[in-house]
Amino acid sequence: MANRRTDHTQTRTGKPRSGHQQPATRGRQHDLLMLETLENVGIVGDVVRVKAGFARNYLLPRGIAEVPTQEKIEELAGQRAEAEAEQKRIRGEQEAMIAKLDGHELTVERSTNDQGVLFGGITQHEVAEMLREEGFAIEDRYVRLGQVAKRVDTYDVPIVINRDLKCEIKLNVKSDAPEEEVVEEDEAEGEDEGPRFNFYVPKEANVESEY
Questions:
Q1: Residue 182, domain member (yes or no)
Q2: I want to staple 23 with a disulfide (CB 3.0 to 4.6 A). Which of 30, 38, 80, 129 is the partner?
Q3: Where is the composition biased (Acidic residues) (predicted)?
Q4: Does 1 score more than 70 pLDDT?
């Protein structure tokens, strides 16, 4: 996953003094050294600037970050280089996947009533699962369906990994009910001869006259 910064983090480019044991404070923010990679915050070896509450309540007590020292930064330099290389690899795979997904179409058939309303909608998780079955490394949160698809229709579904890695796919929802069969009558060959009638013509009676 490409490293992104949220509003509570900011990578610091300067180096702390050796032996510095208290977080460097900038107003309500602290500078901390990442001991492991945390999405949207930083990779191992990064010195990041975070909000004081986030540092105090989450990063420090969980051992995810610590007060930066020059010695520790140098100690983590190798891990940081490996993490950067891994992120570049993941970024390349995600860029290729987004390019392949752009304009991709999914078609699903579901039971509906006669108004085209599904008996149970299609969720974000189901769309992600269909994409995973086709070989795409998609997490549920990448699928921005917005709301459950409840009708027979075509939906434009954004796929968003981050702000600069996104595309749009189409979700075609169809009814699994068979279409009404239309029986066509064979066209009559030749001209219409009209109705035919069979008449019974009795034989002429051979009756001798008595007169």
A1: no
A2: 30
A3: 178-192
A4: no
